[in-house]
Every structure is written in C-alpha cells, then in structure tokens.
Write a structure and sequence with these properties.
Chains A, B, C, D, E, F: This is Hydrogenase expression protein HupH. Chains A, B, C, D, E, F: InterPro entries: Asp/Glu/hydantoin_racemase, Hydantoin_racemase-like, Iso_Racemase_Enz_sf. Chains A, B, C, D, E, F: It holds the Pfam family Asp_Glu_race. Chains A, B, C, D, E, F: One of its GO terms (molecular function) is amino-acid racemase activity. Chains A, B, C, D, E, F: Belongs to the HyuE racemase family. The structure is a homohexamer of 248-residue chains. Chain A has 248 residues and is of the alpha/beta class. Chain A folds into two domains: 127 residues, Rossmann fold, CATH 3.40.50.12500; 110 residues, Rossmann fold (3-Layer(aba) Sandwich), CATH 3.40.50. Helices cover 37% and strands 15% of the residues of chain A. Chain A contains seven helices and eight strands; from the N terminus they run ββαβαβαβαβαβαβα. A four-stranded parallel sheet of chain A has the order 2-1-3-4, with helices on both faces. A four-stranded parallel sheet of chain A has the order 6-5-7-8, with helices on both faces. In chain A, strand 7, helix 6 and strand 8 form a beta-alpha-beta unit. The longest helix of chain A is centred in the first third of the chain and has 20 residues. The model of chain A has no long low-confidence stretch (mean pLDDT 96). Chains B and F meet through helix 4 of B and loops of F.
Chain lengths: 248, 248, 248, 248, 248, 248
C-alpha cells in the first residue's frame, strides 16, 4: 500500500516524511510532498484558496503514479472534496479524521488551534462533518504556524488552552487544531493528568489520519462516488497541466 | 454605490451586466466580469477550486478600484469567505443570500439545481449557513450549465422538479440552485399556481443577491472582521500578482 | 412603492417616520402609525397579545389603501404571521429580518435586548426562524422601553452588554433586541473597536428591516401563501371592524 | 383542586364540560367556558390573534375566582405564554402537553390535524417545544373544524391519514392535531391494529391535557417565573377590563 | 390501578413506599421493591448493567401479578426500554418523565446530579429523549448516593449547585439528577427565591414520575409497540427464571 | 498487540475468529469468544440486557489476561460504555465505529438491519453518537439473525433494501445493521453499481471495527476517563465473580 502525504504549504521543514514514518505499518509505503506554489503556511481562507490548485496537482500526479490513498497534512482539510472528485482515491483530511476519532473515544471534545482567525473555519468544518453536538469549544494558542518551533512558547500556550478546554469548557478529549502541533500529545495528556484530569485523550491529527488511512485502505474503502462524483469537465483555462486523465 | 459582479467561469455570454441592470437602483453603478482562468462552468468542487484564485484577483482589483460591494454570480458561493478576508468588502454569495430570503418568506424551501453532482455541495452550504432545518429537499434538472440555453429542455425539467419539490416534498418556496437559471421565476410560479399551488415564492438568485447587496451596502454594513479577519499573510508563492495591498 | 410601518404600541413619540425616512430609497413612499388600542410598550407576551388585534387592523387598512409592503417596528415580530395571512402583503418583522442579516454577515451573533423578561421570547423566535445554531447569547440592558430616552443610562448599559456579548460570549455580530435602541449602532461598533474588537457588525433592526422590505418588494416577492394562507374565516365576533375584504 | 378549561372559540356546542368530566379525578372541580368575542373556530393565525384577548380575560377572571390550573382546549396553544405571565397559574396547552406525552410513550410521532393551513403553525410549535427530532410528519384530514361533527367524513379521513402517518411516514404514535377530534382515539388505534400496526398510542389531546394538569397541580408545580415573568405593565389602552390585579 | 415501583439497587432503606404514598391518588395501589441482585447504588454504567436483569425480573413478575404500570426509581432510567418490551406495560423512568415535565413548565432546565461520573450518562439520555435543546447544563454535588442521608452536606452542595445552574448557566428550572435527592425541592425553590430567583420550578423526579404514571395509566395509554415490540425470543441461557410468559 | 473479540450471544458458529483473521495486521494477536449466559442472538433491548453481564465478564477477564483492545461483535454496541468503565481498555462497538467510517467516506448513509424491532434502537444510537444529521434511513431485511445463513433469502432482501436505501432514500453509503451480515459488502456494491449507482461504499461492520481498533491501539489511544470513569463500586450483589480488580 502506498500513501501520499501532502502538506499544503510552500515552507520546507515544517512537515516531513519522518513525522509519519514511525507510525506507519511495515507494509505501508509513504511518500510526502509540499507545494511548489501556494502560501507559506495555511492560516486563513485566503491561504487555503491559493493552496488548493497545486495540492490537487500533487494528488492527481500521485494517483497516476500509483498511490492508493492520500493524507492532507492540514487541519482545514483544504481541497479534500475536490481531490476526492479528481482522483477517486481515499483522500483523508486531518480535521475530519481527527474529530471522528475523538468522537469514538469521548463524549465530546474541544479543539485547540493556532489563532482565532481559523476558529470559525474549524467550526464550520465540524458542522459540515455532522459533529457539532460533540464540540465543546475551539480555543487558540495565538502562536503563528511559522513560530510553532518555539517550543517554550508553544508548550506554555498549549498547556494553558488545553487545560482551559478541559477545566472551563468541560471537554472530554482534546484535538489539536493544527497538524504543525505534532508531537505534543503525550505532554498535554500528562499535564492534564497532573492538573487533576487523568485519561483525557489528546488527538495528534497527523499520525491519527495516517493510521485511519491505512485501516480504510486495507478494507478497500474509497469515498462515495455519489458524494464525490468524477468531474464531467476534465480541466480549466490556465490549468492545462492539471487536466484529469481518462482513467478517472 | 458601485457593485462589482463576477461570474466565476470563463465562458463568455452566460452571465452579463444586462442580467442585473434592470434590477439595480438608479444610484447603483454596476460592473461585471468573468474569469480569465478557471473552469468553463462551475459544476463540481474541482471546478470551484480552479475558479477561486482568479475570482479573488477580480475582487481585489475591484476593491482597489473603488467597489463598495461584490456579488458572486454562482450558487456554490465559491471563494466567498476568502474574498471577504482579502477585501473586507461586502461580498455576497448567491446561495447564502437566496436561502436567507427564502427563509424570510416561507416556512421552508427546496432548491432545484442543475445536476446531482452539486446536491451534496449545496446541502453542505445550507448546513454551514445554519438553515438546514428549513430545507425540504434539493432536486436537480440534470441539464448541464452549458446547455441551460436550451429553453424547452430547461422549461420541462424545471417545471417537473419545481412541482415535485412542492407537491411531493412539501416545499413552501423554491430557490433556483444555479444562477444560470435566471429569468424563470415567473414562469415557475405561474406553473405551480396552475397545478394547484398558488403563491409559492420562487427565488431567482442573481437579482435577489444584487438587491440585498444594495440594501446592506446602503446600511453601511460589511462582513464581520471576526468571522473574516484580514489575512496576516499578504500573498503566496506563484500568486505574486494577487498580493493584498496595504490598505487591508 | 409604498411601505407602511407600524409600531405596535400606543405611546406617541417612541417611533416616527423620521426614524425611517433617511434610509428610504427616493422612490419609496413611507407611511407610519402607532396603535389606538394596545400596550404603552411591548415588553411581555401579555403586551404582545393586546397589541396584535389593532396592529392587524392597521395593516388591513393600509393594504386596502394601497400599501405594497409593511414593517413591524418591534423585535418580537408581533402578529407577523397573522398579518401575512390577513393581507397577503410583504410584512416583515424586525427580529426575523435582523437576524437573517446578521447571519449573512457573520459566523454567529448575539442579541442585546431591554430586559430579561423578553429573553425567552426572543430565543423562541430565533429557534422558529431556524437560526438557533447561529445564536451565541441574548443579553439584556435592563432598561425599560419607556426609559430608553435616558441616553446616558442606555449608553452605559449597551456598551457593557455588547462588549460582554463579544468578549465573553464570543459573538461575531451584535443585533439590538429592541427597535427602540435605534441610532446606537455606530457608537457600539466604535466602542467595540476601541476595546479590541474592530469590524463587528452591529445591526439596527428598524432601518435594516426597511431596506430589506424595499429590496424584496422591488423583486416582487411576497410571503408564501402555503406558509401563510388567506384565512377561510373573514372575521370574528367582536372584531367586525376588522373583517377581511373580499380582495384577499 | 379547581381546573378551568377554555375553548378559544365562540361557537357553542363544540367543547363542553362533559368532554372532560369523565376523565377527572374525584377531587377535581372542573369549570368550562368558551369565548364571548373571538373566532367561530380557530384555524389560522388570524383566528388565533383575535381569540387571545378574551381568552386571557377568561383566565384572569378564573384565577381571581380561585382556579388552580387551566387548560387551553385548542391544539395551537393560543395565548399560553401570555396566560402564564398574566396569572402565574399552571396553564397547559393541548399541543405542548400532547406531544410531550407522545414522546414519553414512543420513539417518535406524527400529528393528524384538520387542514393544511395549520400545518406550519403546528410545526413551529413542535420546534419551539424542542421536540422536532421526534416529529415524523404532520398530516391533515381537510375537514373544517365546524364540520367535525360529520362522523362519517371524519372517520374516513382520520383513518386514512393516521394509517398513512404510520405506514408511509413510519410514525410510532399519533397525536390528534385538533382537540375537536376528541373521542376518536380508540377507533383509530383499532383501525391501525387491523391494518397491521398494533399498539400504536393515539393521543387525544383534550383529556390528556386535563390529566397532566391534575398531576402537575397535585405536585404543586407552576410555570417558571423566569420563563413567564409577571408583566410589569398591568393593562393596555382599550383593554381596561383586562387589567391584572395586584395579586400578580 | 396498581403501580409497581422498583429502586434498582440492593441497599435497603434508600427508597421505600413511604416516599411515594403521600403523592398517590386514593384509588392507586402502590407496591415497591428493591433488587435481590445488583449494585448497592447506581452510579455508573457498570452498576446499571448489573442492575437491569433483576430489575426486569421484578417488572415481569409484577406484570404477571397484575400491575398496571411501573416506575423505575432511578435517574438513568435503567432497563426502561427492555422492561417495556418485556411487559408491554406503562413503565416510566424518572429521567425521561422529569425532563418532559420540566420542559412543560420552563423554557429550559438544568440537572443537578450526584457525581461527575453520571453527567455524560444523563447528557446522552436527554439527547435520546429529544430535549437537548432545552438542557442548559448538568451539574453535580459530588455526594455519593450512599451519603445522601448526610443532610447538611447535601443541603450545602444542592444549594450551591442549584444556584449556580440558575445564576451562572441561566436555567429556568432545576431537575434533580438522582431520585435519592427526594424531598429537597421546596427547600431549593425557597433558597433560589431568597437569592433573587423566585418561581423556579424544582422537579423532584420520584413523585413526579408517579403522578405522570397515574395520569397516563388512567388515560389507558401504554408504550408504543412499534418502539418497544414484544421480544420474539422469550428467554436467555442462564436467565431461565426470567422467561417471558405467553401472555406477552 | 492483542485484540479480544466477543460476540454477545450464546449460539456457536455465528461468529468466529476466522471472520476477523483475514483482516488483521500481521502483528495483531486475535482472541475470540461468545457468551456462556445470555441470549441466543441479540435482537431486542431485552436480549441486550441479558447479554451485558457476561459480556462484561469476558472483557474484564481479557483485560486481566493482557488484552490491549476489544471489539463488540454486534451492531447495538451492548455494554460498550460499561466495558470501557470496567476495563479502561479501548473497547469499540461495531455500530459507533461503522457509522463514523461511513461519515468519513460519504455525505450521508443508510443502515440496513435485520428486523424492524431494532430500528429505533439503532436510531437512538446514531443520535447518541452525534451523527443523526448524516443518517438518511434505517431499513430492515426482516430476516432473523439465526436465519442469516440462508444465503438466497438474505441476498434477495439485502439487495432490495440496499437499493431502496440508495435509490429511494438517497443514501450515499450503506452500513450493515447487523455484524452477522458479514461478507456481503462486495456483492451489494456490485449490485448497486449494476443498478446505476457505482461507487457506493458498503460498510461491513465487523472487519471495519477490527481495523479501527488496530489503528487506534497502535496510536496508544484509549477511551476518555472523563466519559467513562472507573466505577467507584467494584462489584454487585450476585455478581461477585465479576468484581473489578484493583488494577482499574
């Protein structure tokens, strides 16, 4: 099985295959890419709009080259529907997958994301995915994506907002609202336990999405073609390099 | 007051200023454009993804040139959130505006659109806009957008699906699910009356959106900056011509 | 086009044509009235019950005299459904219209009204209108309607509750919960901006409802007769002066 | 315990104390009235608007004369909120009480009412009462209230619509949508059983509401004064005879 | 009429017929039981699972001995659906009945229960019963069921949490989240009034459920057999003493 | 990793390890059991009540013996919450897991189950799991669980109901409503494609739940202890063999 991961940003070093490889099954072959054109990071609907065309290109090529499934390494699931239409492939977004997993494990959940700007975007996604009754709150750490490498700043803010989500908003699980927060789940879980809230699942979206992609792919499942039909139009003016093959 | 209308497609002749001018207030100055790059028509999420970058470019330029408000002449509201972020301007989408108007006039409504492929897209929009409790059904005429000029075919299908929405699904109002269906509201209303359902509002999205844009613009209203904050990042790799000005 | 506005109260001076005229289109002819019988102001369901018969009388007469549309100058939309049934005319209530406009502009909204007594009444209206998922909170300034002329008291309370709605409840827009609060939108918006929340739409219900009435009326739209059918019974014992004409 | 029942109509003979007495507890004292002014029957929002003032008068007087609780013998619950505000008394509406009872007994329910005109009115009530997820459908027999005495016509239509609600809409219980349908519950239940649907609860709203009024009254329960506060204004111009006493 | 009450616990003295007799109608014959096998008290889903088999046995026997209706004296409604299936009898759970009564009396309500452990259990019940839009909050006093006899501890905690539900969460009514809190309704109501919240209904689940059971039983109502069909299988391995009679 | 599967029935041969082994990862160690005491099959809430105690016993023992995760091989998820409380282990139910997977792949889904008797049970589960907005319909094949081995009967009924779910109810995916229907997914998908509905995901609950259990277990995820706290009471009268160890 081959899974292609794309981080819909142009900045190198924020997402890499090494973030996923430790979680993959031995039989899984991973490939990974970032964008050639698009935003440095994805923190607004404007960023998202400019990330999607090249993201689609990456997925169309990967499918032609034999990918079985794909993961969008971003918590606003940019282009997920279009990519499913364009490739017919199992394309999973980190947001949809993570909140489904949180709902499997807990009565309800909160999301802790990077900035207030994406809160309404995430809220709308949760609504579209049908799980708004399970959403307690969306909080933000107010750390720009390109500053997430500042460990001390991120730890302090993640600890504070995760604890507030659990203590003040009553959340039974926490979902990171940015895949760039990867690696912090254990620390948050321990912090919450130390503060009197043991056993709170903390969902790290990137590895979670990979594992669900493996599971569904092994089951032979793909997106509904009724929900995501193959486009009748195969390309667009100015996007001739992005034309859909006859295969789909 | 100046309102800029963009049809997010590249095919000339499907949408023009003459579709809107008869409805405009005398004080309103209208401008209109279609896309330079993008899909021939918008009938999938894939089409939508490739329409949005140039649509944003059109709105950013219009704002710089003094537009007060903007109308997206399409029923999937492509790029609406991104355009509000990028320009701060009152940008109205035909879908959101039309279903709000339908909800003002009737207990509930059905949408009659072009093809089954966009039904889940429209259903998700209604959900995000908060009005799913008011939605009776979404039906499709199965006429491709580029064939909407075939009057006889469209009339037959529109009559049949609108009647089914009212008679079988119980709708109290009908909303056209494609702005390309413009001009058919009176005929449908009369057909429904002749079939025993008088006084059913039939919402023609394009003029409806224009009139609400005028009304809100005259009230000095603009989108919430909390919902649609100005992007902190002003451009993206490969989209340098689309950079946001300092003004926003 | 002629629009008839009625404030469903008997106290002169609280609502007048001059509150609306500055917002009207040049082509719009406005008429305005208050009640001959009914409550001094409308602050309970009891008040509302006693306001509706004379309000209906006013609208029936206005329709007979040629009105094209009507506005109920009150945020509980008293008699709106009955007036639509009785006249077939485009009758808009300030509550329904204002929250639809707020939903067009923002991810969600709060209402700031006069007293706690009307909070459940407004909450039920929002639910019936289908927008409860967009409602963040309803707050009250605890200023009786007949004291709204006390500018200092009102300003202080409106500032405090609007800020609390935005800061504590997270609202993306604010809707006044009483048409008698007219004229305060700009001040509140500036206050919110000064407190760190720029670009929050503040909806002043009375002018907003007038502008939407103009827009829908120019589009030739009227309420659904399936939702608001003409009553089969034309009058009632003790209300002979309120008999419906043959015309409807 | 004394319970006052009012049918909010002026036509004698449609509702009487004998409709309720067989169901009352031995300790319950029943009184009953119809309106002096108002509609002949209640089949529109227009009818409802003209029924409420005299209905309030009846309840206010009954309270002053010692009534402990009150029943509105009508399925649109006219004036229920206002009557609770005006009297502080346990005032139950047939609609709210009946659908709550249906929800206690069955997974979901349908309502079978008199005419299509009241379908949206009832739908809105179910929504306000919070039980729309339990509502399968609302059907109508298209028999005017004043013709409900035509047994054969009513039986045929009630049988047909109740069966359709259960067989086609999947309802697990049936609620009559007009208190004037009283007495038909056993016949409908037997008809449904004969058609292959045994054990479907059929709720007859008038006696059901009486029994719940007795139960809640014996428990000493009254409406929440936070939901239905005593009006600060005690009367209205033209309704001086309807002034609220100091007692409330 | 004979009503059988079972407290699904094995500890004697926590629930007795004397808790119900003062509320019963003179014509009602009450019987009461606790479990022979099961948990000492019911404070988790684990407890609930082990309470249900013997609870069913009690109800099956009671039905065979002529009971007309049954009350589950517990706020998680353990075994309610199974008991309705097994006996066809009117079996009411304290949770469903109490929240329906609260919804009849108030715009919304909060539940005050014993411990945080049952909060998600109660939240799920409210959701299944269709009333989640009416639920403001669920709070807990953190007093184990077997300590509820400690009056001072319970009073202090009940006062604090009920007041917080009303003042901080905005509840219009309070429902006890454990039938073991019986007898405290008047004290809480007076405490809330003293704190500035007069007229807040406080629902004591045990007597409330009894009275509604009487009312529905007198109306001849029973659970829908479509919702709760008689089991086709009459017993289970290891539960031969619990076999269903031919009668059902 | 060791996953313990229990089918909550006493009939041998309906569920076995060979149903799961072909889907397991090479690293996964599977164990499997049925009940010693409980119903022959699980087709009512009554059956469910009598299955749960022994099911809990099986899971508690499995946990003590080192199981990492558990699967309930049944579509009503009997005892799932209690088992999570009692063991702290990742216990997945087939219903919750399957509908989450369906929601990941399609806009909405229908369930096709064995008999009408379990339809309201499944409907309530979907509601509790928060996905009722995604549920199109629940249909039944009316084949008792113990007759599911009758291939021809099952094929005919499954084909008919699956097609009706897609064609008449508009479902975008189909979920089997009984784990005993295992093995039919490919045939149904092909049948739907042949009837004009290609690419409809058909979810086979048993293998799907196993694969998600593997994925979540490899991620180190367990149920929220806030949603499913360890019971404070460790056993119950008559269930001494089922006492919880000190370890949890």
């Amino acid at each position: 099985m081959r899974i292609h991961i794309v981080a819909p940003i142009t900045t190198p070093g924020l997402s890499g295959i090494s973030d996923f490889a430790p979680y993959a099954n031995p039989e899984t072959s991973l490939t990974h890419d970032i964008l050639d054109s698009g935003p440095a990071s994805l923190e607004s609907r404007f960023d998202e709009a400019l990330a999607v065309p090249d993201l689609l290109r990456k997925f169309i090529v990967a499918r032609e080259e034999g990918a079985d499934a794909a993961v969008i390494d971003c918590m606003t699931d940019p282009g997920m529907g279009a990519a499913r239409e364009a490739t017919g492939m199992l394309v999973l977004g980190a947001a949809q997958t993570s909140i489904m997993v949180a709902s499997l494990l807990a009565h309800d959940f909160s999301i802790v994301t990077t900035s207030a700007a994406v809160v309404p975007v995430l809220a709308d996604l949760v609504t579209v995915y049908g799980l708004s009754d399970k959403l307690r709150s969306i909080r933000s750490v107010e750390v720009p994506v390109l500053d997430l490498h500042d460990e001390e700043r991120l730890r302090t803010a993640l600890f504070a907002q995760s604890l507030a989500a659990v203590r003040d908003d009553g959340a039974h699980a926490v979902v990171f609202g940015c895949t760039g927060m990867r690696g912090w789940a254990d620390a948050i879980r321990e912090h919450l336990a130390a503060e009197g809230y043991p056993g709170i699942p903390v969902i790290d979206p990137a590895p979670t999405t990979l594992k669900i992609a493996e599971a569904l792919s092994e089951l032979g499942l793909a997106p509904s073609q009724r929900s995501y039909p193959a486009p009748t139009r195969r390309t667009a003016v100015g996007y001739e390099d992005l034309a859909l093959s006859e295969a789909r």
